[in-house]
Amino acid sequence: MTEPTAIDAVMRALADPTRRALFERITRSGEITVAELTQGSGVTQGAISQHLKALKLAGLVAERPEGRKVHYRAEPAGLGPLEDWMSHYGLFWRERFANLRTLLKEIDP
After folding, report:
1. Tens digit of pLDDT for each residue in 6-37?
2. For residue 51, what are the contacts with CB-CB under 8 A and spacing of at least 6?
3. What is the CATH number of the domain that holds 32?
4. Based on the structure, what is the number of domains in the chain?
5. Residue 89's domain spans which residues?
6. What is the pLDDT, as a whole number, of residue 2?
7. 21 Cβ contact partners less than 8 Å away, ≥ 6 residues apart
8. 34's torsion region: left (phi>0), alpha (psi -120 to 50) or beta?
9. Could you count the other beta carbons within 10 Å of the beta carbon of residue 18?
10. What single DSSP character describes residue 4?
11. Residue 83 three-state SS
12. Is 1 a domain residue?
């Protein structure tokens, strides 16, 4: 079995809908505490902490301790492996769309 890569960690972290929602909320807020993330989420603080751990291990969030509180913020560079992976497929589709455009022009000049 191969070693997990950065893209594997990012995709695994974002595969969970609760983690995606947390990541989006953190991204919109700039910086937010676990207690603030728990409010109105319908998820326990312990579960939020576990989801944050997965996001942190994937490099998607960073934490800043302040006394008894820990503030979380999104790490845009953490999406780099996903962006790299998607750009590979973007080249694939751009070429096919260009071929389709050419074919359509030949069919209907």
Report:
1. 899 999 999 999 999 999 999 999 999 999 99
2. 16, 18, 19, 22, 43
3. 1.10.10.10
4. 1
5. 6-107
6. 53
7. 41
8. alpha
9. 15
10. P
11. helix
12. no
